[in-house]
Each structure stands twice: as C-alpha cells, then as structure tokens.
Amino acid sequence: MQTKTTKAFYLIPYYVWIVLFVVAPIALIAYYSFFDLSGNFTLDNYQNFFTSVYLKLTLSSFWYAFLITFFTLLIAYPTAYLLTKTRHKQLWLLLIIIPSWINLLLKTYAFIGIFGLYGPVNAFLNVFGLEETQILFTDFSFVFVSVYIFIPFMILPIFNSLDKLNPSLMDASRDLGASSWTTFSKVILPLTINGVKAGIQAVFIPSLSLFMITRLIAGNKVITLGTAIEQQFLVTQNWGMGSTIAVFLIIFMVIIMIITGQRDKGAYANGKNK
What we know:
Helix 8 (139-163) runs antiparallel to helix 11 and helix 9 packs antiparallel against helix 10 (180-191). The protein is mainly α. Residues 265-274 have low confidence and may be disordered. It is globular and about 70 Å long. The chain contains 14 helices and no strands. Keywords: Cell membrane, Membrane, Transmembrane, Transmembrane helix, Transport.
C-alpha cells in the first residue's frame, strides 16, 4: 500500500497547477481591483460597482443568462430523453457534441452570414413575399446563437443522468397507476436533477461572461459583465474597474455553483444496480 507521503508526493503537480492557474490569477485580479487609473490604492472601484449603471448591467447579465439557460434546458431535456430511447444513442449524442469542437469564432461568423440581409434566412422569407429583415444585432439573434452554442453542454450531463436511470422505477410508477406527468415529475426529474444542475452550471455561468457573441451578433446592443470587463481592460484601460467587475463575477459564479451543487441521491438513480 502507498504511504501518505507517497500519495502527497503524487499530489504535488495538482497543487502546483491549482496555485499557478487558479489561485494566482484570482489573487492578481483581486490585487488590481484596489487601484485606480493612476495606480493609487483606492476603494472607489467597489463603490462604483454599486452605482445604478453597474447594477443595471449585472441585472441585465443575469436576465440574459437566465433566458439562455431556460431555452437551452427546454430544448436539451426532451432531446436527451429521446436520445436515451434511440437505438444508436451514442452515435446521435456524438453528432450533437461534434459542433462544440468547432471554434466559437467560426460558428459566430457563420451565423452572421446566416442571419445577414442576404443570408439564407432572409432568402427563405423572400420566397413567401416577405421583406428582408435585419435579424442581426437584436436580442433574438443573441439568445438564439447562444442557445445553439450551449445546447451540447446541457444535453450531455442530462443524457448521462437519464441513461443511468433504472427503467424498473418508471415501470413501477406506471403499474401503480401514475400518469406520464406524475411519473416524470415524481420519479424521472428528481432522480435526474443532478444532471440538470450540472447542465445549468455549464450554461448559466459562462453566459454571464459572454462578450464575443455580444460584439458580433448583438452589435453591442446587449451588454453583459463579460463585455464590461473587456471594455474596461481594452478600451478605457481601467484595469482596476475591470478587475473589480471580474471579482464580483467570480463571486456570482461561486454562489451559483453552491446553489446548484450536486447531492448524491444514492443507488436509486443508478440503472445498473440490481
């Protein structure tokens, strides 16, 4: 058996990685948040964050993140459920995941062409005699593209939870006279809630910090915390305020992870148990 010293030795690379690429960057961001444009120590950045401008920005970010997560979940859950019922479910799951391997910038530019005035969407509308519509630079285009990009990250954890679900539990529910909705709400959903929570984490948290899609698809008509950080660092060169927003963004992410933290339901959700 390995001694505690040997185990601790093997953990050294892990701790080094955590310190260099997690703790150190967060500490650096927190450090810069206490300085103004002139490099003087100040608490004004934190005070400014609680002004109406940044509070509205925060609420807007949470609203769009909620919309993106809601529509993603609305599409992903039934899709994942249907996948578990298909014959070649792993193949279909792979086909859904493959688009997530494509560079985000390439997919964003593809949608610029699709939603453009001379793109296929407007060409389809022209077939029915409808005038060309500016779909780009709208809330709809921003939410639509974001949902498309995040769908694989929501489907995968939900699919894993559904795939491990013991079919006999659903059969028992139906045998006892439960309706399809009762079976779903009282059996399926509670036993797959960890997959839903994992999907929410994978979608809601990055949705708070989107900035590339807001630039290219929404045309800066949608401003999120991620966009504000980018502007503070690259446009106004106010690293202190940008770091302050990043600090609060990290805090929000931690809170969301705590709220959606998974709790093991035990062996009931494991379809392999007998």
